[in-house]
Amino acid sequence: MSDNLRHFLEGSQILSLFLVIGAGYAFGRIAIFGFSLGIGAVLFAGLALGAFAPHAAPPALVGTIGLLMFLYGIGVQYGDQFFKGLAGVGRKLNTLALFGVLAGLAVAVGGGMLIDISPGTAVGVFAGSMTSTAALQAALEAAGNRDPAIGYSVSYPFGVVGPMLCLYLMNRIVKPVVPAPPPPVIVSEITIDHPHLIGETATKLAALLPADVHLMAIRRQHQNFLPMPDVILVEGDAIMIAGAEAAVAAVSEALGHVDPGRIAKDRRDFNAREFFVSDASMIGVPLDMLQLPAAFSMHIAFIRRGDAIVLPSPHTTLEYGDRVTALAPSTRLNEVRKLFGDSITATAEFSYVSLGAGMVLGVLLGLVPIPLPGIGSFSLGLAGGPVVVALILGRIGRTGRISWRLPLSANLVMRNFGLTIFLAAVGLASGAPFVTQIALNGVPLLLLGFATVLTVVLTVLSVGWLVLRLPFDELLGIAAGATGNPAILMFANKLVPSDRPSVGYAMIFPSMTIVKVIAVQVMLRLF
């Protein structure tokens, strides 16, 4: 019976691949003491099935394509934050992460020598401890065998559990005071009754408002109109503003008194609607450079991007899938709809021309040999090349009519599906050698993986907290970015009511991914 099942699975590789994906995700949802493997369980499901049916693995190209999808999506999303992180304080944060990652690599390679495992297995332990699929792919290419995948699969659980445990314990020990997250945006209507504002223009009024308060509309007597620059305020005018609650309250007291409903209840002259951004000509262009039709009256109140609300500025650029709340004359709302596109499918659509061109450039860059004095040369490979190109394109945003960015929802689906395929394929191909290696060096490999990840996380946390005196929430993001797994970032976001872990992760993750890709190749060349 088992032989028949084995032959069936080995003869249906696509079936085996999706069986691993489905079973892995089901297993990953099981929580023990609040912890679950998540997407990492796909790797272990692949190892189990691969050990039972060694020839059920799909061609290596399948896993490679999945990895490229994952890495390209990460690079395009975080390109802007990455390059900002290379300047100013970002250099200090990246240096801290680099110090921790290299310390972990030294532990993995040095410990591998002590327990007498192959260099490929040792760098695989490092890649698994960092949960870095990009480093694993680079190690597989450099080693020319499956040894890195074995080390990766053994140490991967510690790469997920270890950082979470460290962050949790540090949070309990230091009991940090984290600033509250920014309050949600609210809309308020104010009747102006302070004489010093009478006779001033709407431009002057907007300049007097705090940076987090936005002027949306003006009402005079029985008519509403948009805050055009040359409008002069008169006694009894009402304004509509949007911003943080505390800032709006302060503005209300300084300008006049709150008069709710005075503008919003009258929608004869203009109205507010939410539109999806789906027209390609609107993507990546600063708002002050949008090519609007002559005499086109429209005002963007705020932008919803994912779960965040963005108050627009002249330099704000729109992305596919943004939901824009725009104010315009009621008779011209259809024109505004056509302007933005207003197609909900934009949340899942993107240009395959830009995706194809970006992938081609990334693969080509990965093939370029880079000389390293005293060692030879290395290449970014299929792991590093697409990451670097995607980071650059994510920073550029747009070239002519081509938008390089992807809608957030489409990006998430693409890279999560790509990572799932890669983990399933690697697990299927590594199942049989994994069982053999565990039988020979199981306990030492487990201890080595545990020591490697603890070295990285504890180095970042201790130096960042005790020496550099970094804010706790920012430090969590740096630790998550150094180790790399998005699940660690999600755990950090639950620990503190702040968005700074996400910002820190975005600055650190891409650069440390490139460091890991290069480091494993250098180690294999040296040893």
UniProtKB/TrEMBL annotation:
InterPro entries xref list: AAE_transporter (IPR050144), RCK_C (IPR006037), RCK_C_sf (IPR036721), YidE_YbjL (IPR006512)
Membrane topology term: Multi-pass membrane protein
Coiled coil stretches, renumbered: none
UniProt KW keywords: Cell membrane, Membrane, Transmembrane, Transmembrane helix, Transport
Signal peptide region: none
Annotated RCK C-terminal domain residues: 175-257, 258-342
Primary subcellular site in the record, as a coarse category: membrane
GO biological process: potassium ion transport
Subcellular location: Cell membrane
Transmembrane segments: 7-27, 33-53, 60-76, 96-115, 122-143, 149-170, 350-372, 378-396, 417-440, 446-468, 475-492, 504-524
Domain of life where this protein originates: Bacteria
Xref: PANTHER family: K(+)_H(+) ANTIPORTER SUBUNIT KHTT, TRANSPORT PROTEIN YIDE-RELATED
GO cellular component labels: plasma membrane
Keyword Signal: no
Molecular function in Gene Ontology: monoatomic cation transmembrane transporter activity
Family: Belongs to the AAE transporter (TC 2.A.81) family.
A Pfam family this chain is assigned to: Asp-Al_Ex
Protein name: YidE/YbjL duplication
